[in-house]
Amino acid sequence: MNLLDLKGTKFYQASLRWRRLGNEVKGVVVGGQWCEEPCTVRVEAKKLFENRFKATRDFGVRLDAVEFNTLSPEDSLNLILPFKEEEIKEVVCQCDGSKSLGPDGFNFKFLKESWAYIKDEVVKAMVSFHDSGKIPKGCNASFIALVPKS
Length: 150
Known about the structure:
The chain is mainly alpha-helical. It has helices at 3-6, 10-23, 38-53, 73-78, 85-94, 108-113, 115-132, and strands at 28-30, 33-35. The radius of gyration is 29 Å and the shape is flat.
């Protein structure tokens, strides 16, 4: 007998009920007094977990003297320019063509070899993504690559 067969039984339902009742927080002690008011129980439970999970010590990690690499203003602006067909083709060509097949049964080898036929559709999809910031439903997001702009 498996779990699906048990779900409809009285024994299974009773077991669930007893487990729920056993795990239920019925009240808390506040200032030495037992309180069962739901609002108070909620507030005290929140305080308990906030105190238990807050950072209690300083690990001494400081990043004040670290100089992070930054982009020039020109490079920053280039990041938001629309994709060019040559950039998209370059990214497709740089991908390993022998990786596992996608959900449609194709890999990048197919994209590379049929680029002349499908480039217009791929470019349209990338332009649509750039304009809306959304990937259409039905697209596999794992095929989206960051396009270097410099």
